[in-house]
Amino acid sequence: MKYKNTPDFNHASQEKIGVLITNLGTPDEPTKPALKRYLKEFLSDPRVVEFPRALWWMVLNGVILQIRPKRSAQAYKTVWTEQGSPLLTITLAQLAALQKEFGPDVSVYAAMRYGNPSLSSVVEKMLADGVRKLLVVPLYPQYCAATTASTFDALAQDFTQRRWLPELRFISHYHDYSPYITACAGAIKEHWRQHGRAERLVLSFHGIPKRYLLKGDPYFCECHKTSRLIAQALGLSEGEYKMTFQSRFGREEWLKPYTDETLKQLAADGTKSVQVFCPGFAADCLETIEEIDVENRQYFIEAGGEKFEYIPALNDAPHHISALAQLIRDNLGGWSCDNSERTLQASLAGKLGAES
């Protein structure tokens, strides 16, 4: 096998510490062809859809990719901005804010699991920049095999093709990390300060098929713990908030209670005002901007509710950046780069015939 060499490698180059933040991904543009490329990559991941590969290939290519791209493109057009995809724009803002936090001591990068900037292309850039110690931070507070583990899979697959590997640390979850909980509670409190409190707070997480839980995925339990800790930080009793799951796909049973059905039922039972916050989303995206703030708002109002408010995700707000920076510092402990002998190493390598 021919392995990839580190781009422009030089034995005398300075070593760096790198931090890579990752998120799920986004299409390049809100068009049917772009959505077809994105959805094919996303839904072809066996971590995302645990189904017999041959049968799923036929369903995906013969049915889903013939219908869903057009519908998804229309939805993305409603959230697209002049800067592009909200998820990518916000992730890049998070990158800039974190780089400002760490200065020249740590180089911060951002990549998407699906779409662009691709994980492999960013790893290529990091290695070319001299990153020799790498901390990967998937921006999924709650561990799930379909998200967190899939990111590790992609990283590992890239590494199997490379000659030289950096030292690696990987954050698999931070669902109960105190600064993260404080950031979530702070965002809700700030919304309350500006707009007042609703009768009920709904904490909505992305759903997964129930069978993933039954096979041992801890996501459901971690969502519950996050919700409980946020409620404690806000001083809420059990009757003042509800935890739900959104974004289900297909006909099988997913984690319950479902967000849309819960909002309909709350309105039918006489609840006039709700506020929805999505603790599992580090950045606003289609699933929060369109699915929650448009689609689910409509469900609540049509069922008899009167006031619906979506509390934005943590995004690049200072309290979120501070929490992420502390999480990164905690996981960089003990790492430093000693470049004092790089010139000597280059000299020794040169004597053995190395070009650089």
UniProtKB/TrEMBL annotation:
Per its record, what are the GO molecular function terms? ferrochelatase activity; metal ion binding
Binding residues for Fe(2+): 206, 287
Q: Does the keyword S-adenosyl-L-methionine apply?
A: no
Q: Pathway of this protein? A: Porphyrin-containing compound metabolism; protoheme biosynthesis; protoheme from protoporphyrin-IX: step 1/1
The principal location of this protein is cytoplasm
Lineage, top ranks: Bacteria, Pseudomonadati, Pseudomonadota, Gammaproteobacteria, Alteromonadales
Q: Which InterPro entries match?
A: Ferrochelatase, Ferrochelatase_AS, Ferrochelatase_C, Ferrochelatase_N
Listed A to Z, the keywords are:
Cytoplasm, Heme biosynthesis, Iron, Lyase, Metal-binding, Porphyrin biosynthesis
Q: What is this enzyme's catalytic activity, as reactions?
A: Fe-coproporphyrin III + 2 H(+) = coproporphyrin III + Fe(2+); heme b + 2 H(+) = protoporphyrin IX + Fe(2+)
Q: Does the keyword Cytoplasm apply?
A: yes
Q: What is this protein called?
A: Ferrochelatase
GO CC, alphabetical: cytoplasm
Q: Report the function annotation for this chain.
A: Catalyzes the ferrous insertion into protoporphyrin IX.
The UniProt similarity line reads: Belongs to the ferrochelatase family.
EC numbers: 4.98.1.1
CDD domains, alphabetized? Ferrochelatase_C (cd00419), Ferrochelatase_N (cd03411)
Q: Which residues form the signal peptide?
A: none
Query: What general EC class does the enzyme of this chain belong to?
Result: lyase
**What are the GO BP annotations of this UniProt entry?**
heme biosynthetic process
| Compartments, record wording | Cytoplasm
